[in-house]
Design brief:
Length: 158
């Protein structure tokens, strides 16, 4: 179908305008914008995580503030000077001497010693009243030997 030549003052036909601009409706423009923005966000987040893998977790953790967290529930270790849990104080009638101790058991470089009033588990480096610092613990055929700075204990076979 032949078309008539148009002059410069003749407007463009509505069919041609619809073909060119008909594809750009508002919903399509918004959908395309959303896709471009999502792609941009993904690319930027991915590039940040490649350059610094801990970036996002550091940012999140720095904004979190603990509130009324019980250290017993979480297993948090409290600094020594701040409200440390009290330990029972051992009260003895008299301080023990080396003769008060007997070897109950020796195992894996540790020993259990007994007095008439208490049991004591010791390792090399432990400080024991009446024995001093534990220097060496040996297992022998008759039980074991505990060498301390003030005395040496040997178990006797029964």
């Amino acid at each position: 179908m032949p078309t008539a030549p148009r002059s410069a003052s003749t407007p463009v036909s509505s069919g041609r305008l619809h073909r060119v601009f008909g594809e750009f409706t508002l919903d399509r423009v918004l959908s395309a914008s959303l896709c471009v923005a999502s792609l941009g966000f993904f690319v930027s987040a991915y590039s940040i995580s490649l350059s610094d893998p801990d970036y996002f977790s550091q940012r999140i953790l720095s904004t979190m503030r603990p509130t009324n967290i019980d250290p017993m529930t979480t297993g948090t270790i409290i600094e020594a000077g701040k409200d440390a849990m009290p330990a029972p104080k051992i009260v003895r009638v008299r301080p023990p001497v080396a003769a008060d101790y007997q070897i109950v058991m020796v195992f894996d470089n540790e020993a259990i010693l007994a007095t008439a009033e208490e049991l004591v588990r010791v390792k090399v480096g432990s400080r024991v009243p009446g024995l001093g610092d534990i220097i060496k613990i040996d297992t022998t055929e008759t039980g074991g030997t505990v060498v301390a700075s003030e005395a040496t204990l040997r178990s006797v076979a029964q």
